[in-house]
Every structure is written in C-alpha cells, then in structure tokens.
Design goal:
The structure is a homodimer.
Chain A lengths: L13 H6 L7 H23 L10 H5 L15 H12 L22 H12 L11 H18 L3 H7 L8 E4 L2 H16 L9 H12 L4 E7 L4 H9 L7 E4 L9 H13 L3 E9 L11 H10 L4 E4 L24 E5 L11 E5 L35 H37 L3 E5 L5 E6 L2 H9 L2 H25 L5 E5 L9 E7 L7 H17 L5
Parallel strand pairs in A: 2-3, 2-4, 4-5, 5-6
Antiparallel strand pairs in A: 1-7, 6-7, 8-9, 9-11, 10-11
Helix pairs in contact in A: 2-4, 5-13, 6-13, 8-10, 13-16, 14-15, 15-16
Chain lengths: ~550, ~550
C-alpha cells in the first residue's frame, strides 16, 4: 500500500469491523450490496461470452509474474468493491470459460443459472450438516434426497424407504466432497466389511491392516477394476493401505469395456491363493476417458457367485438413470453394493459435491466414529458415518434442482448429450482425416487425426515402420490439440491408450465431452473445421 | 403435482431448458434474477434475527414428518421463485441460526457478509483447480495464497518463497475440503515418508501395508497424540490402514495439555520394540473441546531428537498467527513438518474449506498421482498431489478476504475472542453455582454447574459417595444444557472428560466458543443468567 494513502476504512475501528458481520439495514447499504451481486452475476457475463481461454503452457510464466509476493498485508489492500471489480476485470478474463459451448474437453460445463442462486443460499445459511445442532432441518432434507437418489439406483420397495428415509439408525448414503472421497468411502466400507470384529479381533478399522493380515494369515488385499478406471481408484488403494499396486487392472475387450473373461480368470487365480483376499470389484459406469459403461449386470452376477463386494463408480454416468430413453445403459447398477455419483458433473451443480450410496442401510456402520462433544452414540448426526467432518448443505441444491427441473428436465439434458455425441461421431466418420476411436455410448467420444496418406501407409508397412508412423500420428494429434487450445476459441482434451490390445504403443486420442445444452452439431463441425485448418498449416515431416 | 395443474413452464420445451443455461440478456430477466438475490441476501435476514433454533431432540419426529416422500417428480414441482420463497419462509426458520451472537456452542459463527459475495463469485466462475485446463489463473492465485500462509507458519526466507511460490515441481501445501482431509493428507504423507521406495521395494503407497510390514519385519505402525485430539485423527488411523487402536492416546497433564513426560515415555517404550514404527507425533493447536494448545516447541524438540514426523493440527488455532498479541501462543509451530488450518473456522469463511501445509516443499511428492488425460507428469496441475480431485477455488476467497481485512482485521477478531473469553471466565468464577473447568487460552472455555450445597458435600464424602454426587452433577449439566437448547434463545454445547486424572468418572462440562464479534460479555452474562434460571426450576433430587 502507498504509504501516503490513508488506511482503508474497513478496519479503522472495531465498530466498522463489527459492522461487516451484520447485514446492513439501511436502504443505501442494501443497494450497495445488491449492486455487488449485479456485478457478479452480470459482470462475469462478458467473460463468459469471450473465448474459452485455456492457456498455452508457454504463457504460464507470464501469467505467474504478478503473483509472487508472499507477504500478507497488515492493513487492508483494497475495498470490497475494488476486490470484486478486480476479479471481474482482471482475474475472470484469465480464467477458463468452462461454460462456453466450445469447451468440450472436460467434465465441466455451463450450469443452469439458478445453481448460483442456490449455492448463495446455502452459503448465507452456512449450516454444517455434520451435526444436527448446526443444521437441523437441513439434515432432514439431506436424508430425504439421499433416499430419493437411492431409490433411483436400487429401486427397493416403498416400505423399505418409508423405514429408512428418516431413520436415525441407518444410512442410505452420504454426500461427499466429490467422486474421489465417494470412491474412497466405498472401498473403505468394503475393506472393513471383509474384516468385521470377530471374537478377540476388533475389526480391521480398529486393529489396522498389519494385525489383520497376521490374524487371518493373509499377505495381500486386492481390488479389481478395469485398466481405464479413474486414477482416484488407485489413489484410494494407496490411501487405504491396500497399496495401489494391488488395485489390479483388468484388461478391456475390443469394445473398451472390462473383459469379463479376464475378470473371471483374475478372480479365480487370486482366490486360489489362500494368502490373498479380494476386497472389492469395481465397475465403471462411464469411464472418464471414453464414457463407456462396463457390463454391470454381468459383473454383479460374477460378484454374487464369488461373494465379492461390487462397487460401481457412476460418478459420470449416474444421472443417466433419470432418462427414460437411456437408463437401460446402466442396467445392473441396482445389484451393486455401493454406487458413486457426482453432483458437479451430470447433475450440473457447482463444484464441489459428490455422493456415495449403499444398497445395505447398515453398510456405513463400518465407518462410524463418535466423539463426546458431537456425534454422540445414538444421535442423529449425519457426520457419524462420513469421511468428511464439517460439510456445507449441498444436498439442498440437489433437492431444489430436482424440484425446479423434474427428472424430465434432467433427462432432456442427458438425451441431448447422447444424441449430439452420436451425430458428432457420424460427422467425424464422414471426414477423411479423422478416425473415430470409441463410439459414444453416453456423451463422451474419442477420435484422432490420421492424414489419409498415413492411413494408407499404415496398412502396408512392417511392424517396426508401423510404430514409427503411429508415433508420428501421435505427434500430430498432440500438436493440433495444443494449437487449438492456444488459439483459445475451443477446447478438446487429449489422452492416450492402446486402441487395440495388439498395439505396441499407446495412441494419442482427442476426447470430447458433450454436456452443455448449447453445444450442438454446428459448433462441433466448427471445431473439426478448425482442427482440419490447423493440420494443413502444420509442418509435418513424413 | 396437482393433476389438473399445467406442467410448469420450465421444461415445456427444449428452448426454455436451454435458456436457463444462459444468463438472461433483457432488462426484465436481469431484474428478476436480481430480485431473487435480494430475497436471498435480505429475506434470510429475518431468520438470522430470531432465535438460535437448535432443535430439541423430541421434535425431530415432527420435523421429519413432511420429508418422507422418496419419489423424484417427473415434472417440475415448483418454479425457481417458489423454491427460493419456500426456503426463506419454510426451511430457514427451521435451520439453526449459527450467526446469532447467542450461538456459542460450536465452531461456526457469523461471517463477514462479503464472504457470501465471494462464494457467489467462485460459484459463477465454476473453475476446477484440480487442473490448469479448468482453472488457469485460479491455480496461480492458489499457489500464491498457499505461499503466504506457509510463510505465516514457517517464516522461511524470501528467496525460499521466491523459488517455490509458483514452482511447477514443488508444493508448499494444498487446499482441502476441511480439517479431516487435511489431517488425513498429513498422516498419509508421514506414513509414506517412512517407507519410501528403496531398491526393489516400491514404497508403501505402491506396495501396501501388508507387504511393507513383511519387508521391514514390522508388525505395527503407530501415531502418538494427546487423548483429547479431534476424533478425525482416529478416523485417519482407520482409513490409512494403521488402525485407530494404533493412534495412541497420550494422557494430558493437570493443565489439560499433552503430558510431555508421558509422551517421551511412550516414544521410548515404542521405539524399544523393534517390530513397531512410529509414523508421526501430532500436536494440537487448539483442541476442539478446550481450545488449549499443546507445548509445540517442546514437542518439536522431542520429535527432532527422535527423528519423528511432527504434525500440528491447528485447524482451530492457526489464524491466531495473524495476531501480534497472541501469535506467541503457537510458538514452535514453525518446527512442525506439517500443519492443518481450517478456512471455515477462524478465517471466517463459508463451509467447506481447509488447508494442509508442509515445511518441506517436496513432502507432497509422496502422494503424487498422474493420469493420461489430466495431471500428466510435468504438468502444473495442482491436483497431482491432493487427496481430493475436482475442487472449487476457495483459495480466491481467502486471498480476497485477506486483501479486504488485512492481517490486522483478522487480528481484531482473534483478540476480541480471547479477551471476551477471559472476561467470561472471570464472570463464571464470580458466580456461586458455576465452576470453571478449563481457563481460556484461546477463545474456548469449559465450565460446569455445581450447586453450592453439592460443592461442599463433594469435599467431605467418601470416594463412592463422591461418584454418586458427580453423576448427579453430570445429570444437572445435561438437563440445563438441553433445556437451554430447547428454549431456543441461546446455545452452548456440552462434552465430557475427566477433569483430573484421579477422577473415576468423566464429568459433563459446558463448552463455549467465542468467535463472533457480536458476542460480548453482556450476552454471555445473559446466557449464564438463563442457566441459573433453568437450574432453579429443575426438580433435583439430592
């Protein structure tokens, strides 16, 4: 702060500080506060109408230049109004316009505008649903919406829900802070279920893994999941002490879904080893990379036959259950033991919110923790059985959104995404320089650029030469994706995996997620046009 | 929905649905949206001016009566305006007024009103700081504010911060979704540091605990922490596979802080057992129940001598470092290996936000995870080394709040809380029926009601009779606390612990957290008056 400047009024006295804790009563102050909100709601609008703004990596240095001071100012640096203006004028233009219909690279998109209102409500209420004493009716609403989504997934009978919806003793699920902690909660429960207290043994949660392995003469816990599962599942293995090496990757089949024969083979082999225990099998309902859904019904059957815990990571695909047209794609999910669904993905809610559900309302007893000052045994505090402690009431947002949109409103969004992805796939196949890699089952697809002359070469050459060409194709795809990102008009992401199990190297593919209702086939054609254009300007040496 | 009613316009067509994803352009729609915000900002005001509204347990049945339907409506049930009105008129009055100056029972209070604006901004931007491609400048700001708080804690030299503030390769800390995941991250890192990759052994994160114990001929991992630590630490032990039994509780001394002799004794005994490894020692900077700070400097010294990882849970007390007057209370925190601080506690931010810091900028490499579609090796994505995946940019709120308030603004709040708590303790000691249990060091204190005749009896009687009277006193305190809660004007919480190590039973104590700047000694006197009044009406059988 300029030394000649007077300190900003805000902390000039205790009185002014105290005042910022009370909502102002007089008309003038109310108007000021509202004006800020207007700035926030509509000032950010301009930003949202410009380019997608994903940064080229080179410019990061430049971007960081002004953000290196690490001292906290003693006195206020800026008034609230200047902070807000700065964010709108200087920060927002350097953020990423995830709401653009041209931003189709990640699982974040535009939201209905009322989501901002709903989040503002829960912020203003500032309830902590960890405990009834800081949330009261919000805890009740949370239990109700959990039951509604549980019913959508597991479709148990009315009397089941009547019994459990507001039950103090049982839990149908929990809100989490995202898919990672939801998956973590599921595998935590699965691990603990396998080694419940028995006689002198107080259960794995109490005793720890070392003692548990000793007690049962084991030396290894494993979890089985297809090779393309979200990396949070490996992280979960590390966190829970299972070891991420023991999150065993099962190969995918030619359709890029878990290979059931390989799964059965792995289960058999692992079960034959008396020192190994399988803690869970995980099915993916919409992989992050391809959006494809594992054969959940068959997996559930295999798990049942082998008495294994079956978790479904439907972080992405879960809300498809709201679509009458496409819910069949998740067939078998009702036979899972637990299911992850994210709120900030296809429920179109703001960051950061996820959910975990358990078929058995007693499952979460496996992770119950009590304390003396809250969450006392016998209390109705939701936090007794959640990984997280303090938690905002995101449940009220989901509850309200479902009331405002109805399941049909959500279904329209889901159906649009899948329909548009299919149209997009057709368009890709029409164009000579592209090759579709994974057809969309939900609203995600992958493809890549293969210039026609390289395509024909690939068919003729020897294995070694083929690898060389594949590397060149990878290089082209990386360059085009980066260039498009740098141009800032649109954004698709890229990833890499083996297209066929016979491949020697992983292929770079372009990945598109079609979730914004504003993203239509014309926009997608423009994005392909741009890629074609970039390709023609590339200096490729074959 | 009433069958005769027309379906609500919102989903009548694809067009209307699509429209809710775009901020309306015309003046009329803008006004409507703003009107909603006005309702939210000021409609909730009335609720905040009434009672604290913590529910009596009996009425829970009544409260849940209208929240048992578990079917999701196909069509919209309500328009946005009705949903908002309903929340303000019907939900908010049944929530808990955590912003009341009479709500002093938990670590949640009024916030500066601009926090609602700031949260609305990050919601509208909807950036995901997990990856640069969905956050760009917000990732840069996050790294800067992390460095600022790291400097506040560890106070390294300018060139250290210049090197690391925007470094791609190192991490000074991370935002988490709260204290639980912050503590979990710390102990996760501590566990992994102990068993890094070495020759054929790929590290505990990869190999899992079972294999690790085998490799090093161990049978037990432990963590040492005082008996009154937050229960999330035990939970952490369970989650990480250490076993919550192995989170060894060290007794407190007569001042209710960790007993250093007992700590040293435990370290010695455990170290003598070659099959046991101590993963970490944890100090508490502000226990949840009493707000007391462990002797961090001494603990750091002991850990250094024994080459042990030292974590400090300063979820509550961390921001006291901003107070020139009281920062000395946390002396020694700079010698910790890791520190937890919550944002939604004494940084007065909305739920849900916490932070974890590491002295060594390479510590978080222990928990690095990569994937092919984001968080690629070498990328600057923050999410590579965080427990959580997708995450909202709460860092922008802290950054802005520090700019608006300055460290002095926060210091005024901290100083007020401590000063008022000390005044409150004096007042308690003045009144005959009360007994102070833990004097406030920070802004939390505990006391209990002991009617004078029982107090004098306690001094004379035998051990068995004493226990009977103690039980009666407990009963009185529970009844008074409950009754006060039911009356709905004010709220203190209660907990139970042994007041002295010679006690046979745990005592019920009343617990107050003084954090709202609107809570002053007059309000606190009123709260004591009310308790005295309730006591006189109680039917006590001695």
């Amino acid at each position: 702060m300029d030394k000649n400047q007077k300190p900003i009024e805000l902390i000039a006295s205790w009185d002014t500080l105290q005042r910022i804790f009370i909502r102002p009563e007089d008309e003038a102050s109310r108007k000021t506060l509202l004006k800020y909100m207007e700035q926030i709601l509509f000032g950010l609008h301009d930003f949202l109408n410009t380019n997608v703004g994903v940064t080229e990596e080179i410019s990061l240095k430049e971007l960081t230049r002004d953000f290196k001071n690490t001292l906290i100012n003693k006195d206020p640096e800026k008034k609230l109004t200047d902070v807000i203006t700065d964010i709108i004028d200087k920060i927002a233009p350097k953020a990423v316009n995830v709401a653009s219909p041209y931003f189709i690279g990640h699982m974040t998109s535009a939201m209905p505008f009322f989501m901002v209102h709903l989040k503002t409500i829960i912020t203003a209420l500032n309830q902590n649903v960890n405990k009834l004493e800081t949330s009261k009716i919000l805890s009740v609403i949370e239990k109700q919406i959990l039951a509604k989504i549980h019913r959508l997934i597991f479709n148990k009978k009315e009397n089941f829900y009547h019994k459990h919806v507001q039950s103090i003793d049982t839990s149908l699920g929990a809100f989490t802070t995202g898919g990672t902690t939801a998956n973590l909660t599921a595998l935590w429960v699965a691990r603990n279920k396998l080694f419940s207290p028995y006689q002198d043994f107080e259960g794995i949660e109490n005793e720890g893994i070392a003692k548990t392995m000793q007690t049962f003469s084991l030396d290894r816990l494993v979890v089985l999941v297809q090779e393309r599962a979200h990396f949070s599942l490996k992280k979960t293995g590390g966190l829970l002490g299972i070891g991420n090496k023991n999150i065993i990757p099962i190969p995918v089949d030619s359709k890029h879904k878990i290979n059931l024969k390989e799964l059965e083979k792995a289960i058999k082999e692992l079960s034959n080893n008396k020192k190994t225990k399988i803690a869970a099998v995980v099915g993916i309902a919409g992989t992050t990379e391809t959006g494809l859904v594992d054969p959940l019904n068959d997996m559930a059957q295999i798990c049942k036959e082998n008495s294994l815990f079956f978790h479904v990571d439907a972080a992405w695909g879960g809300p498809v259950l709201l679509s009458e047209k496409y819910s069949h794609l998740l067939k078998g999910i009702a036979n899972a033991d637990s299911v992850t669904i994210d709120c900030h993905k296809q429920f179109y809610m703001p960051m950061t919110s996820g959910m975990i559900y358990f078929k058995d309302p007693l499952s979460m007893d496996q992770i119950a923790y009590h304390s003396n000052y809250v969450n006392r045994p016998g209390s109705v505090d939701i936090g007794i059985k959640t990984l997280e402690g303090s938690r905002e009431a995101n449940s009220l947002i989901l509850d309200s959104a479902l009331k405002i949109m109805g399941s049909r409103g959500y279904a329209l969004l889901i159906d649009h995404g899948i329909k548009t992805a299919k149209e997009f796939a057709k368009e890709i196949k029409k164009r000579k320089i592209f090759e579709i890699i994974t057809e969309p089952e939900l609203n995600i697809l992958t493809y890549r650029i293969v210039p026609p002359d390289l395509k024909s070469k690939l068919k003729k050459v020897s294995k070694d030469q083929k690898e060389k060409i594949e590397n060149l194709i990878n290089d082209i795809n990386i360059k085009v994706q980066r260039k498009q990102r740098e141009q800032g008009k649109s954004f698709v992401s890229r990833t890499r995996f083996k297209i066929s199990k016979y491949d020697r190297i992983e292929s770079v593919v372009l990945r598109c997620v079609i979730m914004s209702p504003m993203t239509d086939i014309n926009i997608l054609k423009e994005i392909l046009d741009e890629q074609e254009d970039i390709l023609t300007r590339l200096d490729i040496k074959i």
